[in-house]
Specification:
Elements: H1 4-13, E1 18-32, E2 37-54, E3 57-66, H2 72-84, E4 87-88, H3 114-124, E5 132-148, E6 153-168, E7 173-180, H4 183-205, E8 213-220, H5 221-224, H6 237-240, H7 243-247, E9 272-274, E10 297-301, E11 304-305, H8 312-317, E12 329-331, E13 345-356, E14 362-372, E15 375-377, E16 381-385, H9 386-392, E17 394-395, E18 399-402, E19 405-408, E20 410-419
Parallel strand pairs: 8-13, 12-19
Antiparallel strand pairs: 1-2, 1-5, 2-3, 3-4, 5-6, 6-7, 8-20, 9-10, 9-12, 10-11, 13-14, 14-15, 14-16, 16-20, 17-20, 18-19
Helix pairs in contact: 1-2
Length: 420
């Protein structure tokens, strides 16, 4: 692995205006009970971010390297060459701010081998009766060090755990997963999801095809936070807070304007916060990907667009402060008690597929399991303007924290068309 002190020395000898070096030493273990193995690996990653000034402006380059032996001077020269080829408007780096004070390592894991941690996730999982469960546990311990041109050196350790598996009966199977930074949280959530999946398997055996029509769509718990992006359906608001897209006119709304027609008149109006400084948050970190300090900021304020995710460059161009980008999403609670109304209600328990257009906010949900009143159904598709739908949705007054999301544990969207 390249010596960091030699790389820093090479950067100081260069004429680079600003730079950040981030190193990540990762210990990763996987415990797979299907293949009866526990595998451990180490990974060393280096990120070099360079900002280079030339007479016509400033260019930036970002290099990602896996453990390798590279000449530091050659690496810096390559970064400068890439930055020069990407020159844009001139800007000056803002003064270095203090990293966020946040805990991202489970102290109860201290001193334990990463293989032991991964295996313990599998061993502790509950096993429902009359079903086969096959599990895989994954544990990662990451030690990060960030060094900047201004002389700031920040180090931290982060834990990230994931337990996933398949629960199967004689006729069907379902995938179950839980991810977080604390072992007790991951294990507890997985046991809840596993128990729910066992019930869902029984209901899938007697589920019928859906009947099309206008319905009230209810999303609860993991169904609301489904998808590959932390935040689930609420992740639709992250691209709308992208400062680059906003400057290019590619967002649905801008700061100070309503996110959708009537969003500022709903009761209570929608508010969303990005909180990358929340202890044990899945996306929490002291510094962002560019070495900028992570800060808590508001994406949506009472139905109006609020702050943007600002990188160092965007913050300088807008005369603001960088905030580390969109991290964990926190959605304001509502006043809905979670009960169904008088109309036809589809209570979604599992989504088979979620597709969200990051620019328009148009979304498509394929239902895997839901209840139409008290009758289980499977299949059917819902298409909707997700930004407008979430702006007017009734939000529960009870809270859930799942992955990178904290907020109402259920929402109800009226006037949705279910397509069989």
């Amino acid at each position: 692995m390249i010596a960091i002190r030699k790389l820093v020395a090479a950067l100081r000898r260069s004429k680079v205006a600003d730079w950040t070096v981030i190193t990540r030493e990762q210990e990763i273990a996987t415990a797979d009970e299907v293949r009866d193995l526990v595998r451990r690996e180490e990974c060393h990653r280096l990120t070099l971010i360079v900002h280079h000034d030339v007479p016509r402006g400033r260019g930036s380059a970002r290099l990602e390297l896996v453990a390798t032996d590279v000449n530091p001077d050659e690496l810096v020269a390559q970064a400068i060459k890439l930055a020069t080829a990407a020159v844009g408007p001139a800007w000056q780096s803002v003064p270095v701010a203090a990293p966020a004070a946040v805990t991202v390592f489970d102290p109860r894991l201290a001193g334990q081998a990463v293989e032991t941690i991964a295996a313990s996730l599998v061993e502790r999982a509950l096993r429902p009766r009359n079903a086969t469960v096959e599990l895989v546990g994954r544990a990662q311990i990451e030690r990060v060090e960030a060094t900047t041109r201004a002389g700031l050196v920040t180090t931290w350790t982060a834990s990230q755990l994931r337990l996933q598996g398949v629960i199967a009966t004689a006729t069907r199977s379902l995938a179950v997963a839980s991810e977080g930074r604390e072992r007790s949280e991951v294990a507890g959530r997985f046991d809840e999801e596993l128990a729910a999946a066992r019930t869902d398997l029984a209901d899938l055996d007697r589920a019928t095809a859906p009947r099309p029509g206008l319905v009230t769509l209810v999303l609860r718990g993991s169904a609301m936070v489904a998808g590959n992006v932390p935040g689930g359906v609420w992740s639709v608001f992250a691209p709308q807070a992208d400062a680059v897209l906003e400057r290019q006119g590619l967002t649905r709304y801008r700061p100070g304007t309503v996110i959708a027609a009537g969003a500022d008149r709903t009761v209570p109006p929608l508010s969303i916060i990005s909180d990358g400084a929340r202890d044990f948050g899945l996306l929490s970190a002291p510094l962002g990907d560019d070495g900028d300090a992570v800060r808590r900021f508001t994406l949506v304020d009472r139905g109006l667009g609020a702050s943007l995710a600002l990188s160092m460059r965007e913050a300088a161009l807008r005369r603001g402060e960088p905030n580390g980008g969109v991290k964990n999403l926190e959605v304001a609670l509502g006043d809905w008690d979670g009960t169904a109304g008088t109309g036809r209600t589809i209570d979604v328990r599992r989504l088979r597929h979620v597709s969200i257009d990051p620019y328009t906010g148009d979304a498509s949900f394929d239902l895997e399991l839901a209840t139409d009143g008290t009758v289980p159904i499977t299949g059917g598709t819902v298409r909707l303007d997700l930004i407008a739908a979430l702006a007017r949705a009734r939000r529960s007054r009870s809270r859930i924290e799942l992955g990178g999301y904290r907020g109402p544990d259920a929402i109800a969207i009226d006037g949705v068309e279910l397509i069989a």
